[in-house]
Amino acid sequence: MARSWSLLLLPFALALVASVAQAAVVEYTFNVGNLSISQLCQQEMIITAVNGQLPGPTIVATEGDTVVVHMVNESPYNMTIHWHGIFQRGTPWADGPAMVTQCPVRPGGNYTYRFNVTGQEGTLWWHSHFSFLRATVYGALIIKPRGGAKAYPFPVPDEEVVVILGEWWKRNVYDLQQEALHTGIPAAHADAYTINGKPGGFYDNCSAPNQTHKFELKQNKTYMLRIINAALNTPLFFKVANHSFNVVAADACYTKPYKTDVVVISPGQTVDALLVPDAGVAAAVGGRYYMAVIPYNSAVNAINASVLYSLTNGTAIVEYAGGPATSPPMLPEMPEYNDTATAHRFLSNMTALVPNRVPLAVDTHMFVTVSMGDTFCGPEQTMECNKNRTIFASSMNNASFILPNTTSMLEAMYKGSIDGIYTRDFPDTPPIVFDYTADASEQNATLKHTFKSTKVKTLKYNSTVQMVLQNTRLVSKESHPMHLHGFNFFVLAQGFGNYNETTDPAKFNLVDPQERNTVAVPTGGWAVIRFIADNPGVWFMHCHFDAHLEFGLGMVFEVQNGPTPETSLPPPPSDLPQC
C-alpha cells in the first residue's frame, strides 16, 4: 500500500521539482544618478534617473522568479525604490516607501532589494518613493506567465509594447517638493505630459524629432500595449487615432475583454490592452497616427482647471511600415478635460476574468473619508507661514499622516518598540458624520481643519477588511487614486454622492468585481474595497497624487503575525539602510 501511494505521488513530486527548477533569479543593477537631458527645446538640465535612462530600465521576470535589484545611490538625494503592486510576501523589507518599511539609502549608499513574483503576472512598475523623485525615477516591471505567451487567457499578441505615461517639469522636482513643504502650498502642475519619456511636438513650438517617441508597427500584426501611468499628479485620457482597444488586464489582474476607444488611467494604475486598428487602418499601408494623452480634470470647485493641470496634449507617433515617414499623423478626437462620465464608465465597468473569489464574511468594517483641508503651520513651514496661519493639508478620517523621522515603522513593529514612531489608533469612522459631498458652506471652515499624526490600523492576520472610501467637498471634490501596498483588493462598487450603508450594498458585485491595487475614487463619490490581510507587516495606503501625499493623504495598516514562522514578519536583511 505504501509503495503504491509513493508511485501515485511521484508524478506530482516531479512536477513540483520541475516547477522549482524553472524558477530563475533575475538580477539587475540600478545606478541612480544624474542625467543631463533637454526637453521642450530648452537648455539641458540635470535630473535624477536610473542607468542614465528616462524612463528607467524595464524589469522582465517570469511568474515564480526571484528578482534581485542592486540599487546604488550615486545621486545627491536620499533614495528608495518601491515595486508598485508586488505583494512582497515574506519580503516586506523590500517594499520601499521611505520611513514606512525602510530608512532611505543615503547618497553614496546602496541596498539590494530581493523579492519573489509568485502568484502574479502582468504589468506592474517601479518608482522612487522619496520626495517627488519618482517624476523621473520610474520604469516598467513585467511578469510573464510561467507557461509563456501561449498561457495568456486572450489571443496571443505578436508583440508587446510598453507605454509609460509621465509628467515633466522645467524645474528640479526635489526643489519643487521642498518649496511645497516649506510654504505649505501645493506644487505647481507639470509643464508637459510625456509618453516613454518624451513630450511630443505640441509644446512651446518645439517640434524637434527627438522630442517625440515613435512606435514602429507592422501591418496585420497584433500588439498588446502595457500602459502605465507614472505621472506624479495627473489622471489621463489615452487614445490612438483610428484605433480602439480590447482591455484584457488592469493592475496585473486579468479582466474579461473590455472594448473601448479610450483608456482612462490614474497615477499608479496599469492597463493591458490589445490595439485594434479601424477597418481603414487594417487595409492601408504605411499609415501614421498620433497616440495622445490629456489630463482628466475631475476637480469640482471654484479653481480654474488650468491651475491644477496643464491643459495640453502629450503625444507619440504610431507608424506602420511601408509608408512615407513624412506624411502628417492623424490626431485622435479627445474627450473634454472634465468628462467624468467617460472616466467613470471606463473605471467602473471592468470585471474580473475569474469569478467567485471574493471573501463573503467581513471581520473589519471601515468608513474612511478622503479629504483636503487645512492644518496649523508646523516647524517645517519656514516660508510665508507663522503659527497664526494655516496651511494646506490632506487627511483620511481627519488624520493627516506624517512619516516618522528616526526609525522606519516596519523596524519599530519588528522590534516591538513603537513609542514615538506610531500609534495604533487610526479610526474606523470619521470623527463627525456630515454631508460629505455637499457644496461648500460655513460649516466646512470648521470641518476641514485636521491634525497631523502617524496613526495605523492594526489588523489580525487573515482577517477580511471592507473599506468604504468616501470623497468629500470640504475644499474640492476630486477623484483620488488610492493605492494599497502589499495587497490587491476587490472593488465591489463605486458611485457618486454620499455612500448609503442601507441601500448601496445592494450594488455590490460579489461575483466578478475588478481586482486592483489602486482605485480611482469617483469625484464627489465613493468606492468600496475588500481584501484579506494575510501579509504580515506595515503597509502604506495613500493617494497616488504626490502633491496630496506630501500633505498627509495616507495611512498605514499594521498586519499582525500569523501562527507559523512562514506567516510571521521575517528579520531584516543585513544591509538594511539605517537612519
From TrEMBL:
Specify whether Signal is a keyword of the entry.
yes
Protein's UniProt keywords contain Metal-binding: yes
Q: Where mainly located?
A: secreted
Q: Name one Pfam family in it.
A: Cu-oxidase_2
Write down the superkingdom of origin.
Answer: Eukaryota
GO CC terms, sorted: apoplast
Q: What SUPFAM superfamilies would the database entry show?
A: Cupredoxins
Q: Where is the signal peptide?
A: 1-23
* One annotated GO molecular function: copper ion binding
> What is the name of the protein in this document?
Laccase
